[in-house]
Amino acid sequence: MLTEDAAYRVGKACVKFFRSKRYVIGRDMRETSLPLSLALMKGIKEMGADVMTIGICTTPLLYYAAEYLMIPGLMISASHSPKQYNGIKIVNGRGDRVFQSTGLPKIRELSEKDFKSAKKPGNGISRDMLGKYEQDIMKRFGEKIEGISVVVDPLYCAGTIYRGIFEALPIRFFPLHFTLKSTMPIVPNTVDKDSLKDLRETVTRCDADIGIAFDGDADRLGVVDEKGRIIPPDDIFALLAVHELKKHPRKMVGFDLRMSRAVKKAIIASGGRPKLMKVGNPYYKEFLRKRHGLLAGELSGHFMYAEFHRNDDGLYAAMKLLEILSDEKKKDPSITISKLVLPFETYYDSGEINIHLATRKDIKKAYDGLKKAFPRGEEHHLDGLSIEFEDWWFNVRPSNTEPLLRLIIEGLTKSFVSKKKKLILAVLKKAIST
Fold first, then answer.
1. Which of 335, 318, 342, 343 is nearest to 209 (CA)?
2. How confident is the model at residue 433 (pLDDT cuts 50, 70, 90)?
3. Cα angle at 232 between 227 and 238, to 5 degrees?
4. Using CA atoms, how far apart are residues 379 and 83, in angstroms rounded to an integer?
């Protein structure tokens, strides 16, 4: 549990780590976020550095502010997690997240030390960054999106600050859950059916063309079609990638190895170069920066564009999607979002299945058992173990935070995947128990 003392110490540690004289801080709407942000500010100011606070905001807006101001930034949020959780996301002056490989262990180490306060404390000021961000978004999309009906659901969370953007677009805008609630009555998870229940019902009741949802800090995007059906994130990403490749052929597109193989086929068919990637946010941003990728996406609904700060920004991805739908409906009024993603719905997947482990040693047992059971498949070890066949595949990988193996299977039909699921689970049970 993140305490105020820990936040205070992280604030001091960040000044030692970055050695910057200025920092920008944002927070989400959780009950604990304000006291944590005040403790964070106190630590920074006691080290003699100045703090700009942008108040309640989304994580993408904090990233945007850090890059625009060219100073390190800290965001208090636990994203899509339930209300009892909280955390701190840290970015450098380029808006790039600080991860395990780029300094997080050092900041943790520094936070455990006691530093003397500066003789002269820093100052704290409030600054509005939403206006600048809105201007940038509207400049890019204000004249490209029109004539469609959209239900938008920020799930009572930080995405409520985007209301002005949707009201400014020439669309039929149906706001849902646009009141900030620190009690978080809905778990803000954009891939959870229960969390999107109201959105699904509202889309069909309002006869809307599409429904979009943002998670707790709006770095994830969830999408509901005109029938009230949740569209899988890999189908959305395939659609986004195909349309970007029309403008930028032969570019590389990075995607989560758990995504449907329909994504890979769509990228190749559109003249792009697919790059299968490990699960984990740092890899995607590094790919966009170092490999000059066009865009990247995770199965969780994080979508990143190289052209817009390389950050997972739910609003920017939503604007891209609405632009596509608007353009296609101008050509053919009968077009729907469900028709646009239909070409990518050629496979069926199991969803992620969790297998509990007694010890980390069970991971090797699991891999060995699967290799023995499926010797004719093509093995890959990018992230855990993947075994591929001509018309189906599966991946099993260890969780980084829990004693679990995560399994996902994809095939041509639900019944086929169900049979393979029973077989693979039986193999794993036998392998782990021996």
1. 335
2. confident
3. 110
4. 40
Q: Count how many Cα atoms sit within 13 Å of the Cα of residue 287 in the half-sphere of its side chain.
A: 27
3-state helix, strand, coil in the chain (%, to 5): 40, 20, 40
Q: Same domain for 68 and 12? A: yes
What span, in angstroms and rounded, lies between the C-alpha atoms of 43 and 117?
A: 9
pLDDT digits (tens, 9 = 90+) for 270-325: 999 999 999 888 889 889 988 889 999 999 999 999 999 899 999 999 999 999 99
Range of the domain at 258: 233-312
CA distance 186 to 213: 12
Tokens read off for 195:
């969390």
pLDDT for the residue numbered 283: 87
Phi-psi region of 301 (alpha: psi -120 to 50; beta: other; left: phi over 0): left
Cut 0.90: pTM above it = yes
Residue 68: CA count within 13 A, CB half-sphere: 17
> In this structure, are 19 and 91 located in the same domain?
yes
- Residue-wise pLDDT for 227-280, tens only, equals 999 999 999 999 999 999 999 999 999 999 999 999 999 999 999 999 999 988
- State the Cα angle at 54 between 220 and 213, rounded to 5°: 20
In a domain, 43, yes or no: yes
**Do residues 218 and 267 share a domain?**
no
| 319 within domain boundaries | no
List the catalytic residues.
79
For the cut 80, the answer to whether the pLDDT of residue 434 exceeds it is no
